[in-house]
Design goal:
Layout (H helix, E strand, L loop, with lengths): L1 H18 L10 H9 L1 H4 L17 H4 L2 H10 L23 H13 L10 H11 L3
Helix pairs in contact: 2-6, 5-6, 5-7, 6-7
């Protein structure tokens, strides 16, 4: 009986996660997996964020805007936002330790999911932004 309850709990947990899954992307879901591992705890699996704590990513101006905006948010975290302009209480840490490819995959995932249509980001885009911030 305990085994059946445990199995049922596992199935329920996997179905809950599946409810937030987006369509597989051309890279086989790598961008989604990286987003889930690095971003979903704060921005949520559905991109809905947490009111007054973390911004939602659904129809995001930054995601749909200039490629550099999303890359900078991932590279620099909250430091990419001018002081005193954020309405959110939680600071986003920098993810500058991620590779250019990983940041490009996450940025592309955010820019092409959650009702966004910002388009893809390449590792070369990230490399250029990272270089522009070197020494600052």
């Amino acid at each position: 009986m305990k085994a059946n309850k445990f199995a049922a709990a596992l199935v329920a947990a996997s179905l809950t996660g599946a409810a937030y899954a987006q369509d597989e992307e051309a890279d086989g879901g790598t961008g989604q997996a990286l987003y889930e591992a690095n971003c979903a705890a704060c921005h949520q699996y559905d991109g809905g964020g947490v009111p007054m704590m973390q911004p939602e990513l659904i129809l995001s101006e930054k995601a749909n805007g200039d490629i550099g905006g999303v890359i900078d948010m991932i590279l620099l975290g909250s430091a990419a936002v001018p002081a005193g302009t954020s309405g959110y209480s939680n600071e986003m840490p920098p993810f500058d330790y991620l590779s250019d490819e990983d940041i490009a995959l996450i940025a592309s995932y955010v820019r092409t999911h959650f009702e966004n249509s910002g388009g893809a980001v390449t590792a070369d885009d990230v490399r250029a932004r990272r270089a522009s911030h070197a020494g600052q």
